From TrEMBL:
Keywords: Hydrolase, Membrane, Protease, Transmembrane, Transmembrane helix
Protein name listed in UniProt: CAAX prenyl protease-related protein
GO molecular function, one term: endopeptidase activity
CAAX prenyl protease 2/Lysostaphin resistance protein A-like domain: residues covered: 115-206
Species whose genome carries this gene: Nitrosomonas supralitoralis
An example Gene Ontology biological process: CAAX-box protein maturation
InterPro entries per record: Prenyl_protease-related (IPR014346), Rce1/LyrA-like_dom (IPR003675)
Transmembrane segments: 7-26, 38-57, 69-89, 112-134, 155-188, 194-214
Pfam families: Rce1-like
Length: 221
């Protein structure tokens, strides 16, 4: 299970999840959310460090030769569609658990350092880390343990559905997460380059971040 190829794709994601769990535990032990805001910066720094240290293992991140403008335009359009779904699929039954959110304000003044870190993390780091885990590793590994040999276009329905379902329950907005998981899966299978779902994911998170800042809907973070 944990050979080098698997580990290099699991470790950054695992570190990210560890800090999420740590935050939940600290909150349950009486810490205030405001006291933990810098934990996100630590989390992103650790993930970036792991991705950089293991960058040589990510053969799927080599830039695809001959990729078309249509591939990237489709990915960005899909990312915007997912963003629209994300801010609208918020009815009670579409939400699982309770999201603490991320409020960067100090006495109604926005801490722009925290906002910048959050936006960079969400738009540039998380898409790479998550797509390496969910699409490149897990979806193909479910199809065959030698996942690097699996052509994304030939991933089976079982692996497709399990990955989308797990991606859904990893988010409090589970229905929006399911929709996003399906879209990103399809992009990877259709384009056969991981940069397509990475770009779509980055577009979703980037536009969502700008929208959150503009509307001050901090709960979406």
């Amino acid at each position: 299970m944990l050979d080098r190829a698997n580990f290099c794709r699991i470790a950054p994601f695992g570190a990210y999840v560890f800090f999420m769990v740590l935050e939940d535990v600290l909150l349950k032990f009486g810490w205030e959310a405001n006291d933990l805001r810098l934990l996100y910066a630590v989390k992103i720094a650790v993930v970036v460090g792991l991705l950089w240290a293991m960058r040589g293992a990510y053969s799927e991140l080599r830039w695809p030769i001959g990729s078309s403008f249509r591939t990237w335009a489709t990915a960005m359009t899909a990312g915007i569609v997912v963003f629209v779904a994300w801010i609208n699929l918020t009815v009670d039954w579409m939400v699982m658990g309770e999201s603490v959110g991320f409020d960067p304000r100090n006495n109604d003044d926005i801490d722009w350092f925290l906002v910048t870190i959050r936006l960079i993390g969400a738009a540039l780091v998380v898409p790479v880390m998550e797509e390496l885990f969910w699409r490149s590793f897990l979806m193909r590994w479910l199809d065959h343990p030698n996942f690097l040999a699996v052509n994304p276009a030939q991933v089976g329905l079982k692996a497709f559905c399990i990955t989308a379902a797990l991606f859904a329950i990893a988010h409090s907005l589970w229905l929006a997460g399911l929709f996003a998981g399906i879209v990103y899966n399809l992009l990877y299978m259709r384009s056969r380059t991981l940069w397509s779902p990475i770009l779509a994911h980055a577009t979703t998170n980037g536009v969502l971040g700008v929208w959150i800042i503009y509307t001050e809907n901090w709960g979406f973070w």
